[in-house]
Amino acid sequence: MALAPFSFDLLIFPSQGNSDGPESCAQKESAFPFPHTTPPNLSGSFRPGAASTLPRSPFRGRKRRQQKALEEHYGRPGAAQGTSACPQLRLLTLVETGTRAVIAAAFGPYRTAETALVRHVLPQLRPGMLCLADRGFSGRALWRQAAGTGADLLWRVRGDRILPCLKALPDGSYLSALYASARHRRQDRGGIRVRVIDYRLAGVADAEPMYRLVTTLLDPTSAPAVELAALYHERWQAEIVLGEIKVTLPGQHLILRSRRPDLVEQEVYGLLLAHFALRQLMLQASAQAGCDPDTLSFLHAVQVVRRHLPLHGALSPSPGPPAGHAHPG
């Protein structure tokens, strides 16, 4: 099983604090049914005209406090002039490339580094899995933590990273080691044994001069370099999930509608659960059809489920009978 961690940012709808009463607040909340997206110039759309006179509402102060809480908790990225229009959070997911299902996730404020978030999802790795990762996760400490789970690793590193050749292998790869520092490398002390695969993509437009992978799979017979190089590019399957979560599932570009940090967290988990449920449904459908799940259309699955949702309305469970009493026959 191949898995890939990747991160992206989600916009949070800003609470501008410019509503003048509960009526306008209610209009804004009901104008866009879930999933909630907002046109860029919505702010102020429901403000009364200059001649209107309404009593000052406590909603204004509350919304300003909510706005401040969101900004303080998640932060805003920089922009050409000042900061962006919306607070943002950073979401990192661990994706199974075969089914494109998200099996683990971590998120936090926009300023949180990917290398900090990935530490929360690495414990979900298990023996028998193969984890693919790009250059942003190539630190020695992360490698040690991920390898400690028993999963195999195939990670890309920078092409200029110094990885001494300790033993050349017949398939063109070689054995090397990851060291804590240049001093440790010179003394050959405390190195973590890895296998290095350097390759080029001939005839591919915009390809980089060289790609470098490191892996825990040290045997070139059971894991040839050519096969691992081809397998690494399956990591891009995970990038498709980005579009599914941010655009396909909500129907438009996603903007989280919650106005409190705890509700934003709840909304993110709801979004991930909905995506997982759809991917599980697609896996069952592919098993019945005898095809690969990544050949099925996620958009079509979303459309089918939406058409059938009115037929499966959720009802609150009825209270059970008192203890010791049976239902009437």
- Summarize the biggest pleated sheet: 10 strands, mixed
Query: Fraction of residues in helices?
Result: 25-40%
Characterize the overall form: globular
Radius of gyration: 25 Å
Q: Report the average pLDDT across residues.
A: 78
Topology order in helix (H) and strand (E) letters: EHHEEHEHEEEHEEHHEHH
Class per helix and strand makeup: alpha/beta
Number of helical elements: 9
Strand content: 15-25%
Task: Describe this entry's structure for a reader.
With 329 residues, this protein is of the alpha/beta class. The protein has a domain at 129-235. It has nine helices and ten strands. Strands 1, 2, 3, 4, 5, 6, 7, 8, 9 and 10 form a ten-stranded mixed sheet that branches. α8 (261-289) packs across α9. The longest helix has 29 residues, at 261-289. The protein is globular.
What's this entry about, in short?
Helix content is 33%, strand content 19%. It is α/β, with parallel strands linked by helices.
Features:
single chain, 329 residues, alpha/beta, globular, disordered C terminus
How do the strands and helices of this protein lay out in sequence?
Blueprint: E1 2-12, H1 22-31, H2 58-74, E2 88-96, E3 101-109, H3 114-121, E4 130-133, H4 140-147, E5 152-157, E6 167-168, E7 174-178, H5 182-186, E8 192-199, E9 211-215, H6 225-232, H7 236-248, E10 255-256, H8 261-289, H9 298-308
Parallel strand pairs: 1-4, 1-10, 4-5
Antiparallel strand pairs: 1-2, 2-3, 5-9, 6-7, 7-8, 8-9
